[in-house]
Amino acid sequence: EAKKLEDASTYLSLPSTKIELEEKGHSATGKSMQNLGSCTISKDSFQISTLVCSTKLTQNVDLLGLLKWRSNTNLLQQNLKQLMKVDGGEVVKFLQDTLDALFNIMMENSESETFDTLVFDALVFIIGLIADRKFQHFNPVLETYIKKHFSATLAY
Protein backbone atom coordinates (compact mmCIF):
# COMPACT_ATOMS: atom_id res chain seq x y z
CA GLU A 1 0.00 0.00 0.00
CA ALA A 2 1.41 3.39 -1.00
CA LYS A 3 1.60 6.06 1.69
CA LYS A 4 1.27 9.73 1.02
CA LEU A 5 4.39 11.31 2.46
CA GLU A 6 3.74 14.81 3.66
CA ASP A 7 6.94 15.18 5.63
CA ALA A 8 9.75 15.55 3.07
CA SER A 9 12.42 14.57 5.59
CA THR A 10 10.93 11.06 5.69
CA TYR A 11 11.84 10.26 2.12
CA LEU A 12 14.77 12.64 1.66
CA SER A 13 16.71 10.70 4.29
CA LEU A 14 16.25 7.41 2.39
CA PRO A 15 19.29 6.03 0.56
CA SER A 16 19.40 6.99 -3.11
CA THR A 17 22.06 4.58 -4.34
CA LYS A 18 22.84 0.93 -3.83
CA ILE A 19 26.06 1.89 -2.03
CA GLU A 20 24.20 4.17 0.42
CA LEU A 21 21.69 1.40 1.00
CA GLU A 22 24.43 -1.10 1.84
CA GLU A 23 26.24 1.44 4.05
CA LYS A 24 23.08 1.72 6.16
CA GLY A 25 23.20 -2.05 6.62
CA HIS A 26 20.39 -3.06 4.29
CA SER A 27 20.54 -5.51 1.44
CA ALA A 28 19.73 -4.32 -2.07
CA THR A 29 17.16 -7.08 -2.53
CA GLY A 30 14.43 -5.29 -0.64
CA LYS A 31 13.96 -8.06 1.95
CA SER A 32 15.10 -5.96 4.90
CA MET A 33 13.65 -2.65 3.75
CA GLN A 34 10.48 -2.70 5.88
CA ASN A 35 11.88 -0.29 8.46
CA LEU A 36 12.64 2.29 5.77
CA GLY A 37 8.95 2.92 5.21
CA SER A 38 8.64 1.34 1.80
CA CYS A 39 9.69 -1.68 -0.16
CA THR A 40 12.25 -0.91 -2.83
CA ILE A 41 12.78 -3.27 -5.71
CA SER A 42 16.35 -3.32 -6.95
CA LYS A 43 15.21 -3.24 -10.59
CA ASP A 44 13.54 0.16 -10.18
CA SER A 45 15.46 2.83 -12.01
CA PHE A 46 14.99 6.02 -13.93
CA GLN A 47 17.07 7.88 -16.45
CA ILE A 48 17.53 11.60 -16.84
CA SER A 49 18.70 13.13 -20.08
CA THR A 50 19.26 16.77 -20.86
CA LEU A 51 19.64 18.81 -24.01
CA VAL A 52 21.47 22.10 -23.76
CA CYS A 53 20.72 24.63 -26.44
CA SER A 54 22.69 27.85 -26.36
CA THR A 55 21.14 31.01 -27.69
CA LYS A 56 24.39 32.90 -27.37
CA LEU A 57 26.97 30.49 -28.79
CA THR A 58 26.71 28.42 -31.94
CA GLN A 59 28.48 25.18 -32.70
CA ASN A 60 28.44 25.96 -36.43
CA VAL A 61 32.00 27.00 -37.32
CA ASP A 62 30.95 29.00 -40.38
CA LEU A 63 28.42 31.09 -38.48
CA LEU A 64 30.77 31.42 -35.50
CA GLY A 65 33.51 32.63 -37.86
CA LEU A 66 31.19 35.38 -39.09
CA LEU A 67 30.01 36.35 -35.60
CA LYS A 68 33.63 36.61 -34.42
CA TRP A 69 34.90 38.11 -37.67
CA ARG A 70 37.16 40.67 -35.96
CA SER A 71 39.32 37.91 -34.44
CA ASN A 72 40.38 36.68 -37.89
CA THR A 73 39.75 39.15 -40.69
CA ASN A 74 41.78 37.01 -43.12
CA LEU A 75 38.89 34.53 -43.20
CA LEU A 76 36.15 37.16 -43.53
CA GLN A 77 35.58 36.68 -47.25
CA GLN A 78 35.34 32.90 -46.80
CA ASN A 79 33.02 33.27 -43.77
CA LEU A 80 30.68 35.56 -45.71
CA LYS A 81 30.47 33.03 -48.56
CA GLN A 82 29.94 30.15 -46.14
CA LEU A 83 27.04 31.93 -44.42
CA MET A 84 24.82 31.10 -47.40
CA LYS A 85 25.45 27.39 -46.70
CA VAL A 86 24.58 27.51 -42.99
CA ASP A 87 21.32 25.86 -41.94
CA GLY A 88 18.54 28.44 -41.82
CA GLY A 89 17.46 27.36 -38.35
CA GLU A 90 20.90 28.19 -37.00
CA VAL A 91 20.96 31.59 -38.72
CA VAL A 92 17.56 32.69 -37.40
CA LYS A 93 18.52 31.64 -33.85
CA PHE A 94 21.32 34.20 -34.03
CA LEU A 95 19.49 36.68 -36.25
CA GLN A 96 20.30 39.89 -34.37
CA ASP A 97 23.95 38.94 -33.84
CA THR A 98 24.31 37.95 -37.50
CA LEU A 99 22.75 41.19 -38.73
CA ASP A 100 24.92 43.20 -36.32
CA ALA A 101 28.02 41.45 -37.66
CA LEU A 102 27.06 42.09 -41.29
CA PHE A 103 26.34 45.78 -40.75
CA ASN A 104 29.51 46.20 -38.68
CA ILE A 105 31.53 44.63 -41.50
CA MET A 106 29.94 47.11 -43.88
CA MET A 107 30.59 50.09 -41.58
CA GLU A 108 34.15 49.17 -40.66
CA ASN A 109 35.20 48.44 -44.24
CA SER A 110 33.55 51.45 -45.86
CA GLU A 111 36.78 52.66 -47.50
CA SER A 112 36.90 49.51 -49.61
CA GLU A 113 34.27 47.73 -51.69
CA THR A 114 35.85 44.33 -51.02
CA PHE A 115 33.02 42.99 -48.89
CA ASP A 116 30.06 45.06 -50.14
CA THR A 117 28.70 42.47 -52.56
CA LEU A 118 29.24 39.59 -50.13
CA VAL A 119 27.50 41.47 -47.30
CA PHE A 120 24.64 42.40 -49.64
CA ASP A 121 24.29 38.76 -50.76
CA ALA A 122 24.29 37.64 -47.11
CA LEU A 123 21.54 40.15 -46.26
CA VAL A 124 19.45 38.99 -49.22
CA PHE A 125 19.99 35.39 -48.07
CA ILE A 126 18.77 36.22 -44.54
CA ILE A 127 15.73 38.15 -45.76
CA GLY A 128 14.96 35.23 -48.08
CA LEU A 129 15.16 32.84 -45.14
CA ILE A 130 12.68 34.87 -43.14
CA ALA A 131 10.39 35.16 -46.16
CA ASP A 132 10.39 31.34 -46.33
CA ARG A 133 7.27 29.83 -44.80
CA LYS A 134 9.41 27.72 -42.45
CA PHE A 135 10.86 30.81 -40.74
CA GLN A 136 8.04 33.34 -41.24
CA HIS A 137 7.49 33.54 -37.46
CA PHE A 138 10.87 35.35 -37.29
CA ASN A 139 9.50 38.24 -39.35
CA PRO A 140 8.52 40.23 -36.21
CA VAL A 141 12.07 39.69 -34.90
CA LEU A 142 13.48 41.20 -38.10
CA GLU A 143 11.01 44.10 -37.96
CA THR A 144 11.91 44.80 -34.32
CA TYR A 145 15.60 44.71 -35.23
CA ILE A 146 15.06 47.24 -38.02
CA LYS A 147 12.96 49.57 -35.84
CA LYS A 148 14.91 49.39 -32.57
CA HIS A 149 18.44 48.07 -33.12
CA PHE A 150 19.51 48.95 -36.64
CA SER A 151 22.04 51.79 -36.62
CA ALA A 152 24.33 51.34 -39.64
CA THR A 153 24.21 54.80 -41.20
CA LEU A 154 26.15 53.75 -44.30
CA ALA A 155 23.66 51.00 -45.10
CA TYR A 156 20.70 53.24 -45.96
SSE blueprint and pairings:
Elements: H1 8-12, H2 18-23, H3 61-67, H4 76-83, H5 88-93, H6 95-108, H7 116-131, H8 139-149
Helix pairs in contact: 3-4, 6-7
Secondary-structure element sequence? HHHHHHHH
Number of strands: 0
Q: Into which percentage range does the β-strand content fall?
A: under 5%
**How many individual domains?**
2
- The number of helical runs is 8
CA radius of gyration is: 28 Å
Shape: elongated
Organism: Psilopogon haemacephalus
Protein name: DOCK1 protein
InterPro entries: C2_DOCK-type_domain (IPR027007), C2_domain_sf (IPR035892), DOCK (IPR026791), TPR_DOCK (IPR056372)
GO molecular function: guanyl-nucleotide exchange factor activity; small GTPase binding
Architecture overview:
Residues 1-53 form the C2 DOCK-type domain. Belongs to the DOCK family. GO terms for molecular function: guanyl-nucleotide exchange factor activity; small GTPase binding. The protein folds into two domains: 1-49, no CATH class; 61-155, no CATH class. The protein has helices at residues 8-12, 18-23, 61-67, 76-83, 88-93, 95-108, 116-131, 139-149. It starts with 7 loop residues before the first helix and ends in a 7-residue tail after the last helix. The longest helix is centred in the last third of the chain and has 16 residues, at 116-131. It has 156 residues and is mainly α. 47% of the residues lie in helices and 0% in strands.
